[in-house]
Amino acid sequence: MDPIRSSQLPKDVGMQLSASVASHLREQIVSGRLKTGEFLRIDAIASELGVSTTPVREGLLLLQSESFVRLLPRRGFVVNSFSQGDLRDIFWAQAVIAAELASRAAQKMGKEGVAHLQHLIAEHKAAYKARNDEQVARLGHEFHRAINLAAESPRLALLLGSLTKQLPNRFYASIEGQLEETFEYHPIILDAIRMKDSEAVRSLMYRHIMGGGDHLVDSLERSGAWGEPPASVAKSVAKSSAKPAVRSARGGAKAQPAKPAKAAKPTKPVKAPARSKAAAKPAAPKGRARA
Domain 84-224+272-280 - what CATH class? Predict the structure, then answer.
């Protein structure tokens, strides 16, 4: 196992040390730095992190409850497999529940709540321009949290919280292309909430979260989280610096078609999604959650 420095532990305010250890190891498993079948030695991890063995053992037990690791009798903890399908399943479950909560919030949120969301969007953009990654992650999370709480469905929100904890917050903030997409989706989600269009809010939130999952899967695949990246992926990464991908309506990315060598014509800038009535009637999501 690669050396782990204590400074790498998540610094979330109020997070218990055992949860912090679990979050750090979970990130290494999801990113592929800890491989399937690799043994996790409690004493070694404690020494590398500069903590006692108790929070390490408790953190590993928490990861066992989430199926990230398993305990083999008389041998210790070992990393379970974590596939692209596992990651997509986590985002699908988040998307379905978050979409239902957002739909309910649209009917219950008042002017004060709408104003709070508007303020969070402005602060989020300011933090991004200031390159304050910690603030970017916090404010993005707070936008979704405010909507979830406004739904007044605590059991459903608790279930969603247990799913989001399976991925460290830093993943959500560092997804390639996700921040730009977030700045497109959050305002039109707010517009739909302001108009109390529950179905529009449901669809937008579902597509927003599923798009984030697609970005994370693509990013981890390029980094070799599930083995060496395919040659085609390596080539696309090399070309990406020269020509960005064009976003599809579903939040993913489409590869640029090859063009014959000739003088390029000026192109018009890509417009952000419309922020009014056009955003209020998108296609309904594929799944819905019922409390």
Answer: mainly alpha
